[in-house]
Amino acid sequence: MNKSLDLIGIGNAIVDVLTQAEDSFIQTNQINKGAMTLIEEDQAEELYAKMGPAMEISGGSAANTIAAFASIGGRCGFIGKVADDQLGGVFRHDIKATGAVYDTVPLTGGLPTARCLIMVTPDAERTMCTFLGASVWITPGDIQKEFIQSAKVILLEGYLFDKPQAKQAFMKASELAHEGNTKTALSLSDPFCVARHREEFMDLIDDHIDILFANEDELKGLFQTETLEEALIEVKGKCELIVVTRGAKGSVILTSGQQYDIPAESVESVIDTTGAGDLYAAGFLYGYTRDEDIETCGHYGSTAAAAVLHHMGARPQQNISACLNRVQERLQERKKIAYS
Amino acid sequence: MNKSLDLIGIGNAIVDVLTQAEDSFIQTNQINKGAMTLIEEDQAEELYAKMGPAMEISGGSAANTIAAFASIGGRCGFIGKVADDQLGGVFRHDIKATGAVYDTVPLTGGLPTARCLIMVTPDAERTMCTFLGASVWITPGDIQKEFIQSAKVILLEGYLFDKPQAKQAFMKASELAHEGNTKTALSLSDPFCVARHREEFMDLIDDHIDILFANEDELKGLFQTETLEEALIEVKGKCELIVVTRGAKGSVILTSGQQYDIPAESVESVIDTTGAGDLYAAGFLYGYTRDEDIETCGHYGSTAAAAVLHHMGARPQQNISACLNRVQERLQERKKIAYS
Description:
The structure is a homodimer of 340-residue chains.
Chain A: E1 5-10, E2 14-20, H1 23-28, E3 36-38, H2 41-50, E4 55-58, H3 61-72, E5 76-79, H4 86-97, E6 101-102, E7 114-120, E8 126-131, H5 145-149, E9 151-157, H6 164-179, E10 183-187, H7 191-196, H8 198-207, E11 211-215, H9 216-223, H10 228-235, E12 241-245, E13 251-254, E14 259-262, H11 276-289, H12 294-306, H13 320-339
């Protein structure tokens, strides 16, 4: 089937506010380290006032994937709600500047554009506090049948489940996708997000999702298992592809018949892990929408993820496309040796 | 004399919008590479729409110096005008989060907060296009006698000379400083800014400035000489201290009786030179306000400048204070050897 786009992401439209912080700051402010905590506007103001000097970089889980996917050269689009304010302008500029199609009508006269306050500790881990603002005002009306069905794959972020209208938009998109021969991918987003919506995620994965992205903790949370191995047994066969990222330990990919263990790309100095999972999905789906074999998709994921570890923020600052070409050459060389 | 602050900076209150760009982008858009060009709001919108994905980091020349000075542990303040909008909130947060005193009343109902669109080319050079917006609406009314005279040194940025009210504020501050036994430092800002206001800068330096910061091109522009050596002969004796930064070639410092040649700090990979001159001034003035000898001040300048070359943006992301301590230990060690 001819599709004009490879991938459409649907998710929260957020500007990240990133700062470097000591572990003591996380402790003093009683924030759950490494997790994403939802906060209200006044809490966001209060925390921001305490935070060190920061930088603003467009974020949002699915939006990060789309920005990276576009920068690799994929044809893609994004659906997500900003407000009609300066930060909304920043988000819109950045996603459109990657080449992605982005037409969601901004919210006027309501809450401001979503912000995610991100504290990066010396161990390079990111701890996030999100004020969802305008982003939760995405509604089924923002989901257009033609647009959804123009893509080979739509990527939905689990975070959308945190608010009712957004969840409805999510469900509408996944139904339209299935009607239109568009694959659906879901990123589970966060162990706490999984815990908040466990039953619904289970139903969704059973009925609607073709490609599942999760990290180790999210998958264990979903199946309430002690070990990854147990969770992998539980999840096997539930989707066409199950992709589990494991940080420095690489990733595991399950197809109906096989398990692939993909190593992580080695990185010299890790500054900030924000967005590494989102970038993995970008690399993986880039390979997938180009009909690469699963192993190549996995290596593309590892390479894309590595590209945002060297600097603050979840958006690529370098040419990932060149890195993926090197991956492909390396894999082809290896196959040649194996066959010779 | 007891002063409650070491340094107050007075300058444009700007949020930088940084992107990586190829040289061809600079050429196609007919922008003067390496320089700072003033643009209007509609030009800023037009250029922004063409620019790649960006990040927002607080900037402004004197403000960068103050942010770094505060992060080293200096007692300091800043005077500069933002609008009452989201980017103004970003600027205010970032400068206050460093520990600097910042109380300038924001502009309401007028132009938005100033933005500087910065294109960083692969050679790490930055090319800047600035929409001054609210920042030029700083007026003499924003300059309070008590506050100015509470500092050992005030630092004025040459860029303020680009608009009449701002220049008046500048002149008021330098007069109050002299009455109150506060030293005045001037950063020349940009060769084009120097060319725009050459005569006035000459008078100012002759009559009002104790410490002059300039880079090689700015100083040659000011005295319309071919070589740095000629410019150094011309400028000698005009101020108590003349500090000329030369990028990778280090810096030259002239006192009434002596010339000091200070090497640059060696840096492995330079990503973005934005703010290097501003950071040099922070390191130098930190030493100066602590009565360090001139050589130490120069090395502090080199070390602080190096701290922002590794990453995008002009605000420090690491602990410069620790670096300065190492400089001091190194210099003391060298003196011990010289005397033994």
